[in-house]
Amino acid sequence: MKKLVLLSLVLGSIGVAHADSDVWKTVPINKDDYQQKEEVKASKNNFDVFVSSTSSKTSQGDEGNGYSFGASYTSYQTENVFLQPSVQFTNLGNSYNDKMYLANFDVGYTYRFQNGITLSPKAGLGFFKAVYEEGSNFGGSYNYGVEIGLNKSLAVDVTRIHAYGQSSGNYVDLTSVSLKYKF
C-alpha cells in the first residue's frame, strides 16, 4: 500500500502526516525570512522614465543630433539578472527630419558595489517605426549598452541601437546618453 504524504502550511509551520497515521508533525518555518527576500526582490523592480541626447548616422551618411524620451520597467528575475522592456520616441535631428518610435526588450546583469553604485550591462532586440518627410519605414533593431546607477533613484544609461528598415533596406545607428529616474 502506498503512503500518501499530506503537507499543509498553517500559521507559520509546515504540517506533515502520513495517510495511514494519526500522528501530525509540525516543523516551524521563519516567515519573516521568506517575506524579507520577496520584499527585497520586489523593491528592486522599478518603473523608469528617461530623457536622452541622441546622435544618429543613417546608411546614406546623414548625421544628426537629437533627443529621445521614454519609459522602461526593470524586473529582476534573480538577485542580479533582469529583464527590461522599454518604449521610446526619438527625434533624430537630421536633414530627413526622421522621428522614430522604438520598443525594445533587454536582458542584463547588475553588479552592485558597496557604495551603492550599480553597473548594469545589457543587450536586447526591438522593433521600430520611423516617420520622415517622404513617408515611413519599420523594422527590427538590436541594442547594447550599460546603465550606471548613481543611487536608488538616478542612473545614467549609454546605449547603442542599430535599426534596420524592412521596406527601404536602410539602417540608422543611434548612440544615446540618458538620464534615468527610477520610481
Q: Top keywords for this entry?
A:
1 helix; mainly beta; three-stranded antiparallel sheet; 183 residues; eight-stranded antiparallel β-barrel; elongated
Could you explain the architecture of this structure?
The protein has one helix at residues 31-44, and strands at residues 5-10, 13-18, 25-28, 46-58, 63-76, 81-91, 99-109, 111-112, 118-132, 135-149, 154-165, 171-182. With 183 residues, it is mostly beta strands. The strands form two sheets. Strands 4-5-6-7-9-10-11-12 form an eight-stranded antiparallel barrel. A three-stranded antiparallel β-sheet has the order 1-2-3, with no helix packed on it. The N and C termini lie far apart (57 Å).
